């Protein structure tokens, strides 16, 4: 913001300026209650409904995100269903940011939830949608995401020393539902 022409700013990127109110993008998307598991939703019941491995919904190519490369690498180990307009391998497209995407993700254990950019505070519906669908997000984006979401509720790309280490963790969790 140009504070020569405005007194205050509200935005979805973090700023150290005291005249800026940080309001995460995902807060506009859904109520916080929808990502909280109800008592009836036991881990066993949730896992019993998971009949598929991993999904991604890519609307477009991203120059700054490792998502395309990661999708291709994980897909070499085990099929990842891609239902977006970009890199589609299902023959049908699901729009991102939609109830259809959440319904689509409900069958999957994992979702590649990679943002287009990695900026402090920038977290969109990409992390929220899999949480609503009770699907484990594999997240890349906001370097501070662990401040906003429980780090045990997703796999953070930044927490792994290599993509291969992250892929091995995904495959390990897929093989052992008790984990």
Structural summary, described in words:
With 179 residues, the chain is α/β, with parallel strands linked by helices. It is 27% helix and 16% strand. The protein is built from six helices and seven strands. It has helices at 43-48, 67-77, 99-105, 125-132, 145-148, 163-175, and strands at 9-11, 20-22, 52-56, 80-82, 108-114, 136-140, 155-156. The protein has a five-stranded parallel beta sheet, sandwiched between helices. A two-stranded parallel sheet has the order 1-2. The model has no long low-confidence stretch (mean pLDDT 92).
Key features of this structure:
16% strand; five-stranded parallel β-sheet; 27% helix; 179 residues
* Model regions low in confidence, pLDDT < 50 over at least 5 residues: none
Principal-axes shape call: globular
> Structural class, from secondary structure content?
alpha/beta
The largest β sheet comes out as: 5 strands, parallel
Topology:
Layout lengths: L8 E3 L8 E3 L20 H6 L3 E5 L10 H11 L2 E3 L16 H7 L2 E7 L10 H8 L3 E5 L4 H4 L6 E2 L6 H13 L4
Parallel strand pairs: 1-2, 3-4, 3-5, 5-6, 6-7
Short description:
The chain is of the alpha/beta class and 179 residues long.
């Amino acid at each position: 913001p140009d504070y020569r022409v405005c007194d205050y700013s509200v935005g979805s990127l973090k700023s150290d300026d005291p005249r800026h109110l940080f309001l995460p993008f995902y807060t506009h998307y859904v109520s916080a209650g929808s990502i909280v598991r109800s008592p009836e939703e036991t881990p066993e019941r949730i896992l019993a409904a998971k009949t598929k491995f991993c999904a991604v919904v890519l609307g477009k190519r991203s120059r700054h995100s490792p998502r395309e490369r990661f999708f291709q690498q994980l897909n070499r180990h085990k099929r990842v269903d891609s239902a977006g307009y970009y890199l589609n391998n299902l023959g049908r497209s699901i729009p991102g940011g939609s109830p259809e995407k959440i319904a689509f993700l409900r069958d999957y254990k994992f979702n590649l939830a990679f943002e287009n950019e990695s900026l402090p505070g920038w977290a969109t519906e990409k992390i929220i949608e899999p949480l609503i669908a009770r699907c484990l997000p594999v997240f890349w984006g906001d370097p501070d995401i662990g401040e906003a979401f429980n780090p045990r509720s997703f796999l953070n790309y930044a927490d792994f020393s290599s993509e291969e280490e992250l892929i091995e963790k995904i495959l390990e969790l897929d093989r052992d539902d008790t984990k």
